[in-house]
Amino acid sequence: MRLSRVLAVLAPITLLLGACDALTGPFTDPDAPANLTYELIPSGDPNVPLGVILSWDIPRSGRANSFNVYGREGGGDWQLRATTTSPTFHDAGVPESQYYVATVDENGNELAQSPVLTIDLSSRLPAPNGLTSISLNTAIQLLWNDNAVTASNGTFDHYRVYSTMYDDTRGVCTTSWVVEGTTVSDGFLAGNLANGQSRCFAVSAVTRDGHESEWSGARLDTPRFDARNALVYSTSARADSSGFVFLDDTTHHLGLVTRSARADLDFKLERHADGTLWITPVRTTATVVLYSAAPVADLTSVDRAPSSGYSAQSLQAVPGLAYVFRLQDADGVHFAALRVAFVTNEYAVFDWSYQSAPGNVELSRR
């Protein structure tokens, strides 16, 4: 075979080997950083992240001594952002729109560069919607819809939960938002809160590469005192344990079971001739209303205090039913609730809650 024909046959093979890396995939420069990726650092404002973390694979040639990281905004000139010996770089502040990384050898010469990486701040999940809450004792349980997850299950990573104080005098959420925490669940328990102090809450969704969504709508709620399984006797069974005070003004004790002879009782438990037990308001500034004609599943099912219907009339204590009290005190109106768990002809067991913030109707879910 002539040499010219041999060269002609080998030429396509040479080109093929040049286009592929050992016939296993597209050719990659062994001196170039590979797999350049990024992760944004959320700040609470999806348009202004705290920074970006760039990561890449060390070139397989083994000649890399350091790396030059370049960035530019829009179609502007490339600027050297840093030189590092690590295969990662944290660029603080609002990221550049594009980056690339160049390998530097021991003599300071750039050997090869990675492909250009573009960062799109607008690529984000939808804001979580349907944020609701449950008022608890020194805590608020938050719940929301999973619309952000279902929009892009493959890119969702976690939620960020924010809160701030509520300004009662102006009726607005303050601007001092803080991060309560993060979660992968569509619910979050904000704890260690002060009862009677209202807070605003909001939630955002974050992707695996750090893109943060817009926030959900703000949610206002107020923790309140509560307790489970209080036992109160009827006046005819045990007069010393048949009265109840949600908050004792003198001792500042909450949920006080006491004697029925006290004139400052919120209510006492009385037994009628047929053996049924009845909740009877005592002090003139205490009134009560049946929350619902149907049983409620739990004390937390009692959401907001009704706006009307309160009276000083006795109501029968029926298991599963809930009752709301309107209590006029020196500092204003307070609302309280109880749910009857168990009744005999001598005593009743119930769960109760008390809102220490004057005029605040939040007893559980809003």
Write a structural description.
- The protein is mainly beta and 366 residues long.
- It has 3 domains: 88 residues, Sandwich (Immunoglobulin-like); 90 residues, Immunoglobulin-like; 130 residues.
- It is 6% helix and 43% strand.
- Strands 3, 4, 6, 7 and 8 form a 5-stranded antiparallel β-sheet that branches.
- The N terminus is likely disordered.
| Euclidean distance between termini CA atoms | 90 Å
State the order of secondary-structure elements, H for helix, E for strand. Answer: HEEEEEEEEEEHEEEEEEEEEEEEEEEE
Q: State the shape.
A: rod-shaped
Average pLDDT number: 92
Biggest sheet record: 5 strands, antiparallel
How many separate helices?
A: 2
Q: Strand pairing plus helix content: what structural class?
A: mainly beta
How many strand units?
Answer: 26
Uncertain parts: 1-25
Name the beta content range: 35-45%
Domain count, please report it.
3
Radius of gyration computed on alpha carbons: 33 Å
Helix content: under 10%
